[in-house]
Design a protein that fits this description.
With about 350 residues, the chain is of the alpha/beta class. It has two domains: about 160 residues, no CATH class; about 180 residues, 2-Layer Sandwich (Transcription Regulator spoIIAA), CATH 3.30.750. Helix content is about 40%, strand content about 10%. Helix 6 links the parallel strand 4 and strand 5.
């Protein structure tokens, strides 16, 4: 009977989160639905199925937290009754799935179970821009979260730079005091021509303003950059100006996501017509090298995603852990890693087109 009750509890989960928040098995709490912009030429809202952006009513989010808490309490009770001492783990999960196989398809149950098994320390607020939520509303959610789960040590979220430029610094400081400790922001490029071409909706100056404000508020900042987004034509200025913006912000993390044209996006259409020239693997590595060479940050640069350059056998060129390379201490190592790869023949590399079955143009 108790196991059946688990299947009756649930909370809403959005479609994506940063890999670094999945690897730590964060509890996923959906504060907003979808993306308020949805116009980037490389994305076009595809991860969110182009659905309309919504601010979830605060009562819904609070209710989801209550459901997660009820599920956690019930799991502990079930664990005690089944002889697992109130703990979660692989053995308990196997037993629960035997008793109720439908739990294997219960998304929020699996998320909560894995989160508790990992220690229940981190929470990720979904979807694409939780910071667009009115500050006092988000503060209410954070207070309720910490009241129910006081063991939580890190709360993170995606945010748009445009949103952060209009968010008062004192608001960010308040949210930081309530536990929001890291923001993930898509920089993509520090070059205004590239940003305009891909319809990012933000300028390099605004990226710098937003990034500095996040750091001044005491939060960690994780910025995402896209090698190849400037195509062959704008490759050099894309690399150089991205490095300049990163140096002005000095984020804690730079996460590299090599550009890959996605079907049903404007840049994919440009690619098919031949007006957007994808970088070859060697050109991509050269662009990354140029950016790294000019970086003067004291944070980390990470290659924790499968789209980054790798060899034909699937072996990644860079470390793919979530901490990456510490700069400036490992800058020389990183440059030497690129240089060794650049000595290889082009045929030794995996081509990006192969990842989505694109014809190599």
């Amino acid at each position: 009977m108790l196991v059946e009750k688990l299947g009756g509890l649930s909370f809403e989960i959005g479609p994506i989160r940063p890999p670094s928040e999945g690897g730590s098995r964060s509890l996923l709490l959906r504060v907003t639905r979808n993306c308020p912009w949805r116009l980037c030429a490389f994305c076009y809202g595809i991860p969110y199925r182009r659905q309309k952006f919504q601010l979830r009513p605060v009562g819904e989010v609070i209710g989801d937290l209550d459901q997660a808490k009820a599920m956690a309490d019930l799991l502990k009770e079930v664990s005690l009754k089944l002889g697992y001492g109130g703990e979660t783990g692989e053995s308990l999960l196997k037993t629960l799935l035997k008793l109720d196989p439908t739990l294997n398809h219960h998304e929020s149950f699996l998320n909560l179970f894995n989160w508790l098994t990992s220690g229940g320390k981190t929470v990720f607020l979904q979807d694409a821009d939780s910071l667009i939520t009115p500050t006092q509303t988000l503060a209410e959610i954070l207070r309720h979260l910490k009241a129910l789960f006081p063991q939580v040590e890190r709360i993170t979220s995606y945010a748009r730079a445009k949103t952060l430029t209009v968010k008062p610094l004192e608001d960010l400081k308040l949210l930081r005091s309530l536990g929001l400790s890291r923001l993930h922001v898509g920089l993509e490029s520090g070059d205004d021509e590239v940003l305009k071409r891909v319809n990012k909706g933000v300028t390099a100056r605004e990226h710098v303003e937003a990034g500095r404000k996040v750091i001044e508020a005491g939060m960690e900042l994780s910025l995402y950059v896209m090698p190849g987004l400037g195509s062959v034509t704008l490759s050099r200025q894309h690399a150089e100006n991205t490095a300049k913006v990163l140096n002005r912000i000095n984020p804690h993390f730079v996460r590299v996501r090599t550009f890959l044209p996605l079907p049903r996006t404007p840049l994919f259409d440009e690619y098919k017509k031949g007006s957007f020239k994808l970088l070859s693997p060697r050109q991509c590595l050269s662009e990354i090298r140029l950016m790294v060479e000019k970086l003067e940050i004291t944070g980390r640069i990470c290659f924790d995603h499968f789209v980054n350059p790798s060899l034909k056998n699937g072996f990644p060129i860079f470390r793919q852990n979530y901490d990456g390379y510490k700069l400036p201490e490992e800058k020389r190592l990183l440059l030497e890693t690129v240089d060794r790869a650049l000595e290889l023949e082009e045929s030794e590399f995996r081509w990006l087109e192969e990842l989505v079955g694109l014809p190599c143009l």
